[in-house]
Amino acid sequence: MLKRLLNQFSYTKRKANKLTLLGLLTLSLGLTACGEQEVKVKPPAPAVSVYTIKTQPIGGYREFVARTEASKEANLRARVEGELIERSFKEGSNVKEGQVLLRIDPAAYEAALSAAKADLSSTKSGEDNAIRNLKRANELIEDGYISQSDYDRLTTEESQAKSAVKSAQAALEKAELNLSYTTITAPFTGRIGKVNYNVGNIVGPTSNALATLIINDPIFVSFQVEESFYISYLQKHQGERTAEGLAVDLSLRLPNNSEYPEKGQLNFSDTKIAEGMGTVELRTIFPNPNNLILPGLFVTLTVESQNKEEMALVPQSAVQENQQGKFVLVVDKDNKVKQRHVILGRRINAMWVVEKGIVTGEKVIIEGLQKVRAGVEVNGVNKQVDALTGTISDINDPAINSVKANEANISPSAAVDK
After folding, report:
1. How many domains does the chain have?
2. 154 belongs to a structural domain
3. What is the four-CA torsion angle of 102, 105, 110, 112, rounded to 10 degrees?
């Protein structure tokens, strides 16, 4: 009886173990099936921001290293020698034409003027006496009361007296002029710079400039062009000449790489080629109402032809570079990403001019570049790019839509270096 119970217990235990093993096996297969099902679920396409390529009229251009110059400049110098006793302006300030700027001690020149006046008075008295003597001689010589030699002597004395008066008059004028030179005034309205001699210094005609007065508005920008390019350009653009000169757009990039908002005009080209240099000097003129540009700056001058053609523009944020060169990621009509190498021209504010590799209407990725690669499918969200600043925003962003059209558009002449 006991043996039968033991056998029955052993059979029940084996059966329970088999059921447990079967349950675990079933659970394992179920989990495996679930895992296989999750792997087969397709992940959503990554969202990226895209920009639709547009074109704009772009002209041929070239950039030059140029230097700014004051449109008018005067070095204020001492024309007489003496002690500097007064300065009546603040360095770096604006002064008006005729304003007294500096004074030299006038004492010596006032004394010289007094002496010149006295000398003139004396010579005039001598002249009057000589004239009277000659007049009497004219009456006496006819009656034979004086000799011809005496008459000739009196004539000579009268002529010498008149010459002495003229000489004294000239000396007086020179003394007055020297006295006037002790007061230095502004020859025109402008901005005055640093004073090189303080009050108390002895200055004179051999001294350096006391200060420099300039006009910054407008400002000159001078640059040099090699003779071969200059001649070729004139030959190519003969039909583009206007009354003001060549029909070109001129713009500046300042040393901090910012765009200068004002546009310039070509106002001078030299009449000869610089010897030993093989270049011709040209000069442009730019408005400078806020005195932002100072003389002596090195700037980049862009000269762009007004004869333009439509060219595609791509945001800088879309451009990448590898060993093969610059490229962009294009989203095709099937929402697939394609890598496209491009040949870029110049940079215009926040945009690149595309010479080859992309056309109008294509969409390039401008945000989310790190999430995608060529061949993957993406969910492209259309965005707009501020052509001036490069700011990316939604198409219906009211902050962008409120910007004036002339601020949103790219100015072709506001070109900068590649």
Report:
1. 3
2. yes
3. -110
Domain edge (last residue) among 181, 198, 231:
181
The CATH number given to whatever domain includes residue 223 is: 2.40.30.170
For position 416, what pLDDT does the model report? 38
**The Cα angle at residue 179 between residues 176 and 183, in degrees rounded to 5:** 130
- CB-based contact 298:254 (threshold 8 Å): no
Q: What is the pLDDT of residue 417?
A: 41
Beta partners for residue 238, in sequence order = none
How high is the pLDDT of residue 25?
A: 46
Cα–Cα distance measured from residue 382 to residue 399, given in angstroms and rounded to the nearest whole number:
17
Residue 174 sits in the same domain as residue 232: no
d(Cα 194, Cα 197) in Å, to the nearest integer? 9
pLDDT at 247: 66
> Which ranges of the chain have pLDDT less than 70?
1-42, 139, 142-144, 233, 236-247, 396-418
Judge whether 374 lies within some domain. Answer: yes
The strand ranges marked E within 325-375 are 325-331, 337-341, 343-348, 351-356, 363-367
Residue 343: CATH number of its domain: 2.40.420.20
Q: Calculate the alpha carbon distances from 184 to 128, 187, 228 in Å.
A: 39, 9, 48
CB 310 within 8 A of CB 358: no
Identify the domain containing residue 401 by its residue range: 48-61+308-416
* Claim to verify: residue 409 and residue 312 sit in the same structural domain: yes
Residue 247, both tokens: 């029909």
DSSP string, 268-280: EE-SSPBTTTTEE
Residue 79: CB partners within 8 Å, gap ≥ 6?
A: 178, 181, 205
